[in-house]
Amino acid sequence: MKNYIAHLNKAFENRLRLGIMSVLITNDWVEFNTLKELLDATDGNLASHITALEKTGYLEVRKAFIGKKPNTSFRITKEGKKAFKEHIDGLEQLIKKSM
């Protein structure tokens, strides 16, 4: 029997990271505050998971100023899209095999 759980990516085991990637895969650039509101996360918690995903190369960070206010936004990278799609495909296969 094939080991479908082996296709799951540890980077997406956390619900917040899964949420971040789900939002980013369907949008171009997403601002920090938008992610925070959508995912009902604290600043620190969201920042730590974004940092972890950035270290894997799965998302890109853009820092800019709007007027005098700093603005940070994120988008998924090509590597991130590929890894996330493989993770979702692995979940789907696991679900199909368990039915």
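The above is record 1. Record 2 follows with the same two-line structure.
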Amino acid sequence: MVICCPGAIDNNFHCDKKKDDKDVSFDIFDDKFISSLSYSSKTGDIKSSEHQYDKEINDILNLNNKTLSENRRRTLKGVIDYLNQKHSANWPKNAIREQLASWDLKDKDGRFKPYCGIVELSFGT
């Protein structure tokens, strides 16, 4: 897949470490796969509208383990809290665009911010 994380948190494997030599049927850069994704803002879980992809996300890659889901949920909550603190409950469109732009930037090593997907999909649509 893509080098984006160590593949284990508290000895709970996910991503490539969990995948091992098993195959997944999707390409993470394919628009069909990306457009099938959504997140639960309540739990932080990632899901796909395509049954096979969703099964592989959970069973092969373990992307909804407790820690990853909670980290995604907390990331989204942090962005919401920031927007509420700066703009009360009525967020101007430019504030949302500014947040999205900052989450779409790569760092000096060419990596996106961790859990950027939940922020981008929650505010970008």
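The beta strands are 8-9, 12-13, 37-39, 46-48.
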